[in-house]
Write a structure and sequence with these properties.
By secondary structure, this protein is an alpha/beta fold. The chain has a single domain, classed as Spore Coat Polysaccharide Biosynthesis Protein SpsA, Chain A. It is built from eight helices and ten strands. The strands form three sheets. Strands 4-3-2-5-9-6 form a six-stranded mixed β-sheet, sandwiched between helices. The protein has a two-stranded antiparallel ribbon with strand order 1-10. A two-stranded antiparallel sheet has the order 7-8. β2, α2 and β3 form a beta-alpha-beta unit. α3 packs across α7 and α5 crosses α7. The longest helix has 42 residues. The N and C termini lie far apart (59 Å).
Length: 283
């Protein structure tokens, strides 16, 4: 019995020795290699970017690029107050809650201006910037309200801002991230940005969309460059007369595609444009 016990303990000890030996040979060299690799990456952060070949690996952002022409001692360019105009679609019943909440929070951080668009006759004494659109009510879907808001942006602010956003009153905008993203793009191009949609499964074939056509979904917010607004707005009357669905975002997308010559950008197009603007993404 004692002999069996000693043999059992000997087997356990032998197993531990063999295990530690294998671990030291297999794991430690790999850890050392990873550590060296990490140090090399820190020493040359541009190696995973455009100069090192863009591989479609996404993670941390390197911005601005190293060859941006500024020395390390120069101060960053101050934020522009005429960069982004946000039009928030709301209604009379939401002015005292949703609209005020948005105005007190994210609206204060927008690098530009925010106004809230409601129906004709809305209470404009509430201490937030409200635009009561003439001949517009709060009915849903808000197709006319949306188009008239875009016309107001065009008529009053076209030459004052680079980007224009249509937002709902229940969204929260992280303005710093949005500004960083928009500054990576060329605002002089005709760009229509948002969450790309093609309709729900039960709507396929019912939205009068041709294969490959899409629209920017209204819920998350829709962004237009100045050029898109300039091309599309003069034709809003025609777009309102020739609507094929009751979906406001579908019809805005149709109008943009028809008269601005662009549609909601696909994700791969955004990546390509960001790469061209020298935003570098690394894993």
């Amino acid at each position: 019995m004692a002999g069996r016990s000693r043999r059992a303990w000997f087997s356990v000890l032998l197993g531990l020795v063999v295990g530690f030996t294998l671990a030291s040979r297999l794991i430690l060299p790999k850890a050392t290699e990873l550590k060296k690799s990490g140090q090399k990456r820190k020493a040359n952060p541009a190696g995973c970017g455009l100069n090192g070949g863009l591989r479609g690996e996404y993670g941390g952002v390197l911005w601005p690029p190293q060859d941006n022409g500024f020395s390390a001692t120069e101060k960053p360019v101050p934020r522009s107050n005429n960069f982004l105009y946000v039009g928030v679609m709301t209604a009379q019943k939401y002015l005292n809650n949703r609209a005020i909440a948005a105005h007190r929070t994210w609206a204060q951080t927008i690098p530009g201006h925010v106004e809230f668009f409601s129906s004709e006759g809305s209470d404009t004494t509430i201490p937030i910037p409200i635009v009561a659109l003439r001949n517009v009510d709060d009915s849903y879907p808000p197709q006319k309200k949306s188009f008239m808001m875009l016309k107001y942006m065009h008529d009053h602010y076209l030459d004052q801002y680079e980007w224009f956003m249509r937002a709902d009153d229940d969204v929260y905008i992280k303005s710093e991230r949005l500004e960083s993203f928009l500054r990576s793009l060329n605002s002089s191009e005709a760009l229509f940005l948002g969450q790309t949609g093609m309709g729900a499964r039960d709507e396929l074939g019912k939205l009068a969309l041709e294969p490959g056509e899409n629209f920017c979904m209204g819920g998350p917010g829709v962004i237009m460059s100045r050029e898109v607004l300039r091309r599309m707005v003069p034709h809003i009357g025609q777009c309102l007369q020739e609507m094929y669905t009751t979906h406001e975002d579908v019809e805005v997308g149709r109008c943009v595609r028809r008269f601005a010559g662009v549609q909601c950008v696909w994700s791969y197009e955004v990546r390509a444009k960001m790469a061209a603007g020298r935003i570098v993404y690394c894993s």
